[in-house]
Design brief:
The protein has 25 helices and 22 strands. By secondary structure, it is of the alpha/beta class. α8 packs across α15 and α18 runs antiparallel to α19.
Length: about 650
């Protein structure tokens, strides 16, 4: 397809042709026409830019980088791999293209050219800052998040006390030394992360699964409550499942600490009892207003807390992070926990990745502590820390954990996750070929043996909970057994998506006589909630089972709450939901299972190909604690490991400039 803006065809006709070819969606075309209509403009270059901006927002980018518009193929932006490879060329060279774009932007009444961070008095719908074009709302979100994080990236009151009181510094260093066991070699980065959280109003602790983020933050809470007994603390996560896991992890960490608080740590026993265990979702914390995008808590009605801990921060999108920070009191502390290598949020932005971006140099991660902070942390942790010239105070608030306690150095799952994260195709191939007991490869085949192998695995994985159901075991026991195994898919639709795999699993379990799917709700059906219902206490991503209720002699839907208690709901009252023997990798974030099976399509095309990326593989692999299976083609797996998702954003530049 040749897209020539100097042709005699009207621009709306050209955009319609692009839509028919799949280079633009109907939403992209109508967005461009409607918005341009507000200024009574039919400037073809402006219409193209508006269509591309809509295309970017649909792909979860927060802006349109003008430098990525390619004269050779303008509808498949350079450096951003989220566009189908459709040939749409201009008949002009790149320098003239840039001049045409600049003129269209300068002449449009829709666009405000931002200088620094001031606001537009006319509230125009589009903002051009540097070489990035924004929908004004997303420009405001970026500005708001950057400003609040920079405000929080400062020394805490405890840091100032430590600087002025050598005895307190010595005492705190001894407590840290007793709480964290000495590493075999090198620096104990968990201890450094704890010291960072003590000395900074903002702390960002990032690292892969099993690196001890929750354990570290539990010890931080112990120290903070010892120093500040009246501290009001709230724990939150993006989804109900992630909140439940956070609660479970904090409880487990407290139990482990309980046995070690003797001798010099005995004085911390009382502080341990005051560490909160109950986590909630971010939406519940902020207070949802039905049928309204705003929350009850905001700048004029801030949250009542002194410390907010946000787990699974990689799942928090740009708009939600902006609203959460807006509701945070000015004097409150904030600790963000997450894995910057996981899949980014479902909505626009990649906030955690942007926050951590300043730590990456030549594909290597390194801390960026100022000389003052490096000296302070070195004294607290009794370890030499290197100082670097940092262009942002944010570097003093970050700590990256690298040693995984979940996977041993020679564990197949950990090695595979590391190789995928590094995009090392040779290492990936070697790991699959070594025959690790915790790894299993199923190849797609024409005779369907690969899919049959997956279904056999599902029969083994789901047999225990179904047997417990037949034995009329307690719902809590059945739910625990069900959550030991899960099938993850890269996409929702298609034979090898969630919909097709769920149907295949249900047929296989029914053929064994373990399920009787004769109606919508049947005993043993697994369900996942797709929308929030605050009256029932059910949230998007919650997973439950349809089980008999002996007390009422009828089927009920059973869910595990974040505090470990059970919620039972009449199936007819459930909000939007689907079957959940298989779920998307995106929905699995914040969860972990003993055994995981990942399904990739055999011949991905178009939109399917865009979903397969390194972060998706890494996220799926690291959901598994003991065993990981993959049903895929080797070329498809290798292609996905090469494809690194990059989201267009100006947030990293704002934070690290």
């Amino acid at each position: 397809m040749l897209l020539n803006l100097h042709s005699s065809a009207p621009i709306d006709t050209l955009l319609q042709q692009a839509e028919q070819q799949g280079a633009l969606s109907p939403l992209d075309r109508h967005f461009a026409l409607q918005l341009a209509g507000l200024s009574h403009s039919d400037e073809p270059w402006l219409l193209l830019l508006l269509a591309l901006l809509s295309k970017q927002l649909s792909a979860q980018h927060s802006c349109l980088p003008l430098a990525h518009i390619d004269a050779d193929n303008p509808l498949a932006l350079r450096q951003l791999p989220d566009s189908p490879a459709i040939e749409c060329r201009f008949d002009i060279p790149q320098p003239q293209l840039s001049a045409c774009i600049v003129k269209a932007l300068q002449d449009s009444a829709l666009i405000w050219q931002a200088q620094d961070e001031q606001s537009d008095p006319q509230h125009r719908p589009l903002v051009l800052q540097g070489e990035r074009l924004y929908l004004r709302r997303y420009w405001h979100y970026e500005q708001q998040v950057a400003a609040k994080l920079q405000q929080l990236a400062c020394d805490s009151d405890i840091a100032r006390q430590l600087d002025n009181d050598p005895a307190l510094l010595q005492q705190t260093a001894e407590l840290l030394g007793n709480l964290f066991s000495a590493p075999d070699d090198g620096i104990d980065w968990q201890k450094v992360a704890a010291a960072t959280a003590l000395t900074r109003q903002l702390a960002v602790i990032t690292g892969g699964p099993g690196t001890g983020k929750t354990t570290t933050v539990t010890k931080v809470l112990l120290l903070l409550l010892q120093l500040l007994p009246s501290l009001k603390i709230r724990l939150v996560a993006p989804t109900g499942k992630a909140a439940a896991r956070l609660s479970e992890s904090v409880k487990h960490s407290k139990m482990q600490l309980q046995s070690s608080l003797h001798g010099p740590l005995a004085a911390l026993q009382q502080a341990l009892q005051h560490i909160p265990e109950q986590a909630s979702t971010i939406h519940r914390l902020l207070g949802v207003i039905p049928d309204d995008s705003r929350f009850r808590h905001h700048r004029d009605n801030p949250l009542l807390l002194d410390l907010l801990i946000v787990d699974e921060a990689s799942m928090v999108d740009l708009p939600l992070m902006a609203k959460l920070l807006d509701a945070l009191p000015d004097n409150a502390r904030l600790i963000l926990l997450g894995d910057q290598d996981q899949l980014a949020s479902v909505e626009a932005g990649a906030v955690l990745a942007d926050i951590c971006q300043g730590l990456k140099h030549a594909d290597q991660w390194q801390m960026r502590y100022s000389p003052r902070q490096a000296k302070r942390l070195g004294e607290l942790c009794r370890a030499p820390l290197q100082a670097t010239a940092s262009s942002s105070g944010l570097g003093d608030s970050l700590c990256m954990l690298r040693h995984s306690h979940r996977f041993k150095g020679d564990a197949g799952i950990g090695l595979l996750a590391q190789a995928v994260n590094q995009g090392d195709e040779n290492a990936i191939a070697r790991i699959w070929q070594r025959g690790y007991q915790e790894l299993q490869w199923l190849e797609h085949s024409d005779d369907g043996s690969g899919l049959q192998g997956l279904l056999t695995l599902c029969e083994q994985g789901y047999r225990e909970y179904l047997a417990l159901m037949q034995q009329q075991a307690a719902p809590a026991q059945i739910l625990t057994a069900f959550h030991q195994f899960r099938v993850l898919c890269a996409m929702r639709s298609g034979e090898y998506g969630v919909d097709g795999i769920n149907r295949a699993i249900i047929r296989a379990l029914a053929a064994k006589g373990w399920l009787q799917p004769v109606s919508e709700f049947y005993a043993g059906r697994a369900v996942i909630i797709q929308s929030n219902d605050y009256n029932l206490g059910l949230f998007n991503g919650d997973i439950g089972l349809i089980l008999p209720d002996p007390a009422q002699q009828r089927l009920m839907a059973w869910f595990e709450r974040s505090d470990g208690s059970l919620l039972k709901v009449l199936p007819a009252r459930l909000p939007g939901h689907d079957s959940c023997f298989a779920m998307t990798v995106h929905k699995s974030q914040g969860s972990e299972f003993n055994r995981v099976a990942l399904v990739l399509p055999p011949f991905p095309k178009g939109p399917q190909q865009q979903l397969l990326c390194r972060e998706l593989l890494y996220t799926a692999i690291t959901r598994a604690k003991n065993h990981f299976t993959c049903l895929a083609g080797s070329r498809v797996f290798a292609h996905a490991s090469r494809r690194l998702t990059r989201r267009a954003s100006g947030l990293a530049q704002r934070l690290w400039r």
